[in-house]
């Protein structure tokens, strides 16, 4: 009987140790996310899973499975143009968004007839997708907007009519605050 209790206790310790390690890794190092919408098609499809590096760009440390923030980890670097990132949606922090960084602090961004210009030059966006040829001034044009200090501008790769360019202008104003960052995608799929 004593041997069974020792064996059971060993199993309990092993499970608790694994659980604590998993929670620590999820909070500080890496986290899995599911792609919830088509805004990143064709790069990422609805239902795809990505692993996110939480310490590269810095991340809030929350109590696991809640939105209760304990503190924010500092990042090793700032977001760069072209990075695919995960961030808390500023309007509803319970939602995670996955987008691509298009412009960073100090950049001037604008859209003219569906083409994104950063600092006056057309952005190199081989991953971007438009499925219609119709250009609507209120939908496909905005700016120029100068991105303020410690902010950046993100968009999905899929710029179909329902995704639209102008909704990013309305939702993000002059850029996304770095405090909303949750992580950087570990490995981008082939485009």
Summary tags:
Umud Fragment, subunit A; 191 residues; 4-stranded antiparallel sheet; 3 helices; 20% helix; 7-stranded antiparallel sheet; alpha+beta
In terms of topology, how is this protein built?
Layout lengths: L1 H27 L1 E5 L14 E5 L5 E4 L6 E5 L10 E6 L2 E13 L3 E5 L2 E4 L2 E2 L14 H4 L1 E5 L4 E5 L10 H7 L3 E2 L3 E5 L6
Antiparallel strand pairs: 1-2, 2-13, 3-4, 5-6, 5-13, 6-11, 7-8, 7-10, 8-9, 11-12
Q: What would you say this structure looks like, in words?
A:
The protein is of the alpha+beta class. The protein has one domain (2-185): Umud Fragment, subunit A. It is built from 3 helices and 13 strands, in the order αβββββββββαββαββ. The strands form 3 sheets. A 7-stranded antiparallel beta sheet has the order 1-2-13-5-6-11-12. Strands 9-8-7-10 form a 4-stranded antiparallel beta sheet. A two-stranded antiparallel sheet has the order 3-4. The protein is elongated and about 80 Å long.
Entry summary:
The protein starts with a helix and ends in a 6-residue tail after the last strand.
